[in-house]
Amino acid sequence: MDTKNLLLEDIEYKIDKTSLGVWRRFAYPSGELFEEFVSYRKMFGLPLLHYTRGRCPETGKRIVARGIVAVGRLSLGVLAIGHASGGIIAIGQLGLGLLLGLGQASTGLYAIGQLAIGGIFGLGQIATGYVAIGQLGFGKYVLGQLGYGRYVWDTRGASSVAEQFFRSIRSMINWLFRSL
Fold first, then answer.
1. With 0-12 CB in 10 A as exposed, 13-18 as middle and 19+ as buried, what is 150?
2. Among residues 35, 41, 45, 39, which one has the least CA distance to residue 21?
3. Which residues 6+ apart lie within 8 Å of 173 measured at CB?
4. Residue 54: is its pLDDT beyond 70?
5. Long-range Cβ pairs for the range 21-25 (8 Å, 24+)
6. How far apart are CA 125 and CA 133, in angstroms?
């Protein structure tokens, strides 16, 4: 039985330097692939683009993509895209955004997802926000199947203020699309 610790072995990456940045790749004997791209260009000390895929052969763990645009299973950036992402704008199954979160579970001033925890606006099955639209909504202005808030329009009835508010939003959306 071979008792070598493969994590202590030297890892040979395939390195490709392009005009935009550097690719680092490793293929496991099983066929699993590790890839990482880091752009040369930086802003605020972060790469403009950082992309990761797979598990790092040196640690056996996933590398968190960190950049202005960060793409990977785990990502942190101004625009973060991944299964679990955090940033100003975050897109993923778990999208923890400051401004906008999109995902199954999302947060942000504006949040859209099955669980949307929004500060200003939430849209989802369960939604919170100053304006909340969802099957279950919590906010000041709520449109949903079941809503809780100051001005609610749900299956139990409609507050006249909520009805006027949501109808005016519909009018604004109609005007916007006619203007395009």
1. exposed
2. 39
3. none
4. yes
5. 21/47, 21/49
6. 8
How many CA atoms lie less than 13 Å away from 131 in the CB half-sphere?
11
pTM of the predicted structure, to 2 decimals: 0.87
131-170 residue pLDDT tens: 999 999 999 999 999 999 999 999 999 999 999 999 998 8
Distance CA 65, CA 36 (A): 9
Q: Where are the alpha helices (DSSP H) in 62-121?
A: none
Distance CA 26, CA 33 (A): 6
pLDDT above 60: residue 1: no
Instruction: Decide: 105 and 94 in contact? Cβ < 8 Å.
Output: yes
The whole-number pLDDT of residue 29 equals 87
Q: Tell me how far CA of residue 34 lies from CA of 6, 15, 26, 28, in angstroms.
A: 16, 12, 5, 8
Tell me which of 6 and 107 has the higher pLDDT: 107
pLDDT given for residue 172 in this prediction:
85
Residue type for position 172:
M
Whole-number average pLDDT of the chain? 93
- Residue 93 confidence (pLDDT): 97
